[in-house]
Amino acid sequence: MSAPAPTSTRGEATKAAIVAAAERLFRSFGYQKTTVADIARELRMSPANVYRFFPSKAAINEVICGRVVDELEALAWAEARRAAPAEHRIRALFTAMQQRVQALCFDDRRMHDMVSAAMAEDWPSIEQFIHRVDAAIAEIIADGQREGVFGAIDAVQTGKLVHACMICFAHPTVVEQCMDDDLPGLAAGMAEFVLRALRV
Predict the structure, then answer these.
(1) Residue 23 is part of a domain; what is its CATH number?
(2) pLDDT of 49-107, one tens digit each?
């Protein structure tokens, strides 16, 4: 049995160093080809020491995937909390998500592969991400209702439906299959379609 991970500041620093090293290796070689031994070697420590902080490589995968999707979630909340009419925020959110996911596919291929696998395999970080983006969209919808622009609908349920409308340009696997399509145009058109459905 491994000793429990230290809870001191030093222990937290070591845990952060493990995650940083793992992310560097994931970006260079891919998460599937990177082993705990590789991570330990990068940090000049033993694999047993890595396991003091993470029970498995899957736990490291989860943390790094969470960091990637946290950026997408931050985009959603930035729009939800921006001082602008709700309709403008819906349009901006659709555009921002399309641009960031397409950049992930083109510029950050190794991370794209991991996020695609996480979505296909229902990793916990993905489920949490989906719920949080649903909530951000619901907040925009509720603001639109207060503005008198959107109809009297269930904002929470509708937030989930609006999020589902983004799949064609904001799901890494789908985007990869649709690279020849006009994804910016698709995101803009879908935003207008959604707004027509939301309006009073």
Answers:
(1) 1.10.10.60
(2) 999 999 999 999 999 998 888 988 999 999 999 999 999 999 999 999 999 888 887 77
Q: Where are the beta strands (DSSP E) in the chain?
A: none
Please give the single-letter amino acid code of residue 78: A
- Say if 3 falls within a structural domain: no
Q: Is the pLDDT of residue 5 over 60?
A: no
Q: How far apart are CA 153 and CA 200, in angstroms?
A: 10
pLDDT at 174 (0 to 100): 80
Dist. CA 117–CA 68, nearest whole Å:
13
- Do 159 and 87 fall into the same domain? yes
Q: For the chain, percent helix, then strand, then coil, each to nearest 5?
A: 75, 0, 20
**Domain that residue 121 falls in:** 60-198
Is 111 exposed, middle or buried, given 0-12, 13-18 or 19+ CB atoms closer than 10 A? buried
Which residues lie closer than 8 Å to 177 by C-beta, 6 or more apart? none
For the stretch 155-193, pLDDT in tens is: 999 999 999 999 888 888 787 777 667 889 999 999 999
- Which residues have CB under 8 Å from 1's CB, separation 6+? none
Q: What is the count of structural domains for the chain? A: 2
Do 119 and 136 sit in the same domain of this protein?
yes
Same domain membership, residue 177 and residue 85:
yes
